[in-house]
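Pilot study result, target chain (118 residues):
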Amino acid sequence: MPTPAQKLARRQTRNRVRLKKFNNGRPRLSVHRSGEHIYAQIIDDLQGITLASASSQDKELGLKTGGNIAAASEVGKLISARAQKVGVKEVVFDRGGRVYHGRVKALAEAAREAGLTF
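Predicted structure:
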């Protein structure tokens, strides 16, 4: 369980990363990681809408567990396919204040391999 200081540090990191990448004309690939699942969204910050989303809970994937690297890779492939369906090829990666390692890295690499550029 994170301490209040850890929560504050994560929030500050998340906001700092988001401010650097906001308003550059490309949609943002936002990743949220919980203990049991991983979620990804393609967000257009200029319009304030979500263009595509995918998670380890999607019925389309049929995963038994969403808290591992294999599930994150599948979510990365799915978000890439859904992004390309709505015409998005280039995004900015927002890791949500998390370290680029493990499930977050697996999702990003799978999305790149499936055709997203960031």
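One observation from the pilot: Residues 4-21 form the longest helix (18 residues). A full batch analysis is planned for the follow-on phase.
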